[in-house]
Design a protein that fits this description.
Order of helices and strands: HHHHEEHEHEHEEEEHEHEHEEH
Radius of gyration: 34 Å
Helix content: 40-55%
Structural class: alpha/beta
Oligomer: single chain
CATH architecture of the largest domain: 3-Layer(aba) Sandwich
Strand content: 15-25%
Largest sheet: 8 strands, mixed
CATH topology of the largest domain: D-Maltodextrin-Binding Protein, domain 2
Length: about 325
């Protein structure tokens, strides 16, 4: 007997579940139109349908629910207490359904979600702040998770799915399946403390820096750029005497301003350090020394794609200046 009772309960639940599964959003919208107008003719006009199918739809809805929702008479149409409750819940359900659809559309367009962005610290002077301001003003629903990292660290992060997109310096060794897309082409300039005897000269040949102490990042922080600088110095006839190997550009700037040594820096970054450094163009053998910022990524999510497009726009604006 107990087993039969359980079977009956399960069958009853299954019937009710199947019944409610048949109540779709279209039926709810039709009911809301009737409940709000309390007039089948006006509701039919609002729904752009004829009145008889609408009346049949409401009766079908009542049959599915097993309750009376609307009391009909020749002179009036009124909601039952159950009908009042169902109107409130139907409005809520329809609003949530619309919210879900809009959220899906915004997600597909990259307007909601998150993106993990790697960057080299030289972008902090102008490019990265401009990118964040522009992107977040049009995509407030996207959470950007920033990670300052060297080019090798970014490549590794992209391979291990720890980053979605990166901003790094070319050239990059062993990029493999990582796509590299140039953003900004700059050039390296010499940076000196204001008190330096070469600071009074308008431009410098690279060879004039041969006897100076250098501040240069370590090779493993950026093998490609490090090799390019050493090659340029070699073409100018010397190997730089490096006394400090800072990781960050900001640290390099501080050491140069503190008269520890001289350095090469991208022009855009050096010019953003007023009063701290004197930057001079470098000429002669080994020059120019290019400094190229690029985007790095594998497969782009909608959010990362939106960020990429914004980064390309910002780079175009900077090139026009």
């Amino acid at each position: 007997m107990q087993i039969l009772s359980i079977v009956k309960i399960l069958l009853l639940l299954w019937v009710n579940i199947k019944r409610y599964q048949m109540i779709d959003l279209r039926l709810m919208r039709q009911y809301v139109a009737v409940a709000e107008t309390l007039n089948f003719r006006k509701a039919a006009l609002r729904l752009n349908m004829s009145q008889p199918p609408l009346s049949l739809a409401i009766r079908r809805l009542e049959e599915l629910l097993g309750v009376e929702l609307i009391v009909r008479s020749p002179r009036s149409t009124k909601l039952t207490p159950a009908g009042e409750v169902f109107l409130v819940e139907s409005r809520r359900t329809l609003a949530q359904a619309e919210h879900a659809c809009e959220a899906a559309r915004r997600s597909a367009a990259g307007a909601v979600g998150s993106v993990r962005l790697g960057f080299v610290d030289s972008t902090l002077s102008s490019f990265l702040p401009a990118l964040l301001r522009s992107f977040q003003s049009t995509n407030p629903g996207v959470d950007i998770q920033l990670m300052e990292a060297t080019p090798p660290e970014q490549i590794e992060g992209l391979r291990n799915d720890q980053l979605d997109i990166g901003i790094l310096v070319l050239p990059v060794r062993d990029a493999g399946n990582i796509r590299l897309e140039p953003l900004i082409e700059d050039q390296m300039v010499a940076v000196l403390p204001e008190s330096h005897h070469l600071a009074k000269i308008g431009s410098l040949s690279l060879s004039e820096l041969a006897d100076e102490p250098w501040v240069l990042f370590a090779q493993h922080h950026g093998p490609g750029m490090h090799a390019a600088i050493l090659q340029a110095c070699g073409e100018a006839g010397f190997a730089p005497r490096v006394i400090q190997h800072p990781r960050q550009m900001q640290t390099t700037a501080g050491l140069v301003a503190g008269e520890i040594g001289i350095a090469l820096m991208p022009r855009l970054y050096a010019q953003s350090q007023p009063g701290r450094l004197v930057c001079r163009e470098i000429t002669g053998p080994g020059t120019p020394v290019p400094y190229i910022l690029a985007l790095a990524y594998r497969e782009l999510s909608p959010c990362a794609q939106a960020l990429r497009e914004n980064a390309l726009l910002i780079s175009q604006e900077l090139r026009k200046r």
